[in-house]
Design goal:
The complex is a heterodimer of chains A (about 425) and B (about 210). Helices cover about 65% and strands about 5% of the residues of chain A. Chain A is built from 13 helices and six strands. Chain A has a three-stranded antiparallel sheet with strand order 1-3-2. Chain A has a two-stranded antiparallel sheet with strand order 5-6. In chain A, a hairpin with a 5-residue loop joins strand 5 and strand 6. Chain B is an alpha+beta fold and about 210 residues long. Chain B is built from ten helices and eight strands. A three-stranded antiparallel sheet of chain B has the order 1-3-2. In chain B, strands 5-7-6 form a three-stranded antiparallel sheet. Classes of the chains: A mainly alpha (about 425), B alpha+beta (about 210). At the A-B interface, helix 7, helix 9, helix 10 and strand 4 of A face strand 3, strand 4, helix 4, helix 5 and helix 7 of B. Strand 4 of chain A pairs antiparallel with strand 8 of chain B, so a sheet runs across the interface.
Amino acid sequence: MTDLHTLVAGLQKQGASLHLDTTDLCFLAALHVKSQSSLDEELLFDVYEQVCDVTEPGAANPRKRATHALQRLREQRLLGRVDGAGLVKAGEYAMTRLGTAIVEFFLHEEVLTRESLTLLTKTLLSQLSDVLRASRRCETDEDWERHVVTPLNVTVRDLVSGIERRQRGMDAQQEEVRTRIADLLQSDWFAAVEACEDLLTQTASTLRELHEVLLQDATQLQNLLAEIEFLAPERAAHAARHVSEQVDRVSAWGQERLRAWSDYFQFVQRYLRSVVRLDPKRAVSQRLRELLAEWPERPWRLVAAEPTYVRLMREPEDRPLRPRVARPAGLRERPPEVVAVEGDELEGLVREALLVETTLSGVVQRVLPQVDPPRQFPAVGRVADHVARHARAQSPRERQWVPVDDRLEIEEWTL
Amino acid sequence: MMEHPYRSLEDVVQDDLFPEADLALRRGRHVDQEDTSLYTFLSDAQTYLEPFYRRFGGDLVKSADGYFYLLPVSAKGLPRRSLPNGAMLAGQALALLFLDPSVVMKEGGVLPRARVLELLASLLGERRVVGALNPRRRASGPSHVDEELARQELDRGLKLLEDLGFVDLLPDGRLKMRTPLLRFTDPVRESTDPREALALLVAANRVEVEA
């Protein structure tokens, strides 16, 4: 199973992209219709010019445009050069698988009809029956690979993909029906009612038949796949499970489309009944348009019932009063305190102590008693500052903390 | 011959759907055929519910377009409200879009919400739309703020229309139109003179007109 992230990353790394305008697409379609194994450059240019005459009549310099288109399609791997002459001569080209697939999608509308779906599902049933019979006889890994895994991976998946492609065709057809109904009503209004109802009924009955076929055949398909999965080793069982998921997707598509179409069917029926039949001349739209245009100056309002809400009253409760926060009034301004300037005096004391002491603690012990007690703690920092300026500290790896009195201790420096 | 499901008002009230239907109607919701079970219930019980709601001062109205709603008709009964500017403008614009098959048929009545403002702007002009949605705007002309307030008023109107069953607001920014939008065409259905039609609707308590 392809890893999604790897796939996306790979495409992103390659810068994979496709840009096709209508002229390019028509050019490819024209080449496809030519159905030649290879096309020389002159032929390509001629075909492009013919297409350009239709899609862009009067376009200037079609030859140059053809050259650019050819380059563009080659770069996007929609056309490939099939000769090996290089620059020696003009090349020969063919459509690649990608180019062919794109054109075939547009050229061949695969509509899901009961016959085509039945053919596909019956063929799928037959293939799975063969695979089941083979799986009962498998003995070796090679047997499982050849008779079960490969058919499941290749043939059966192709059939299921075919059903899915036809589903997309049916979706496109339903989209066309919606557009057709809208166009009929837009152009003919009341006269289109019967035609719209016929369109709706036809598509609804087709969907109903398809759903019945899908439901019936899908059940048989799932039963066969379940038996194969039961008998098979892991690799083959994985392949069977994958096909089973695809069959589930096909069934879910049928159910979902039937439900969506049923809703649309009822909506259109109501619309035809309530809008189109009641206003066959489409006068209401015009009158409403005029009424809306003058609404700001002449407002009117629709009346509707107003919901009533029961007022729920809370139970009364006594809330305790919180005491008011109060503090004694104090003087907002205190008289200034006279403080002795210590700077020079302290420095002098430190210098004297340094003559005698060799450690910071010794200096502090000598100086501190000469400082007023309330100012001793901040003074220690100033003492250390003076010591640092007037002496060189020698610090071992770990400094001891030494008490200087019964209240203070200091990190010891050896001076 | 099919037996009628209800033989008395008691049977109707005892039905599991009665509370949901009653609450929806009293909240102003318009119940149409997309609410299949409620619509069927109201259709079957209509004979008993009409006199029931009349006692509360309301008329259970069944429109010919296929929806029910409760209309307060007495000053002493069920409370009534008239739709605000945003809901009225949005409702009329949506009704106009609902009548356009090119809009409705391709997507089954689903369209982007922005279409409403686009239609209003093309019919009334941006200045008049902003003025109608934001009456307190400055006289000098709509500013960026006025326009934003007008958009918010329109969004509130759409939300109210959803509550009343006129539209469904989808999570992807689109909305789905519903049949009750045809109620906004009542003034222009029967008569070619909207004023005459409005006068009749006012007399029937279905609309209010500002003096």
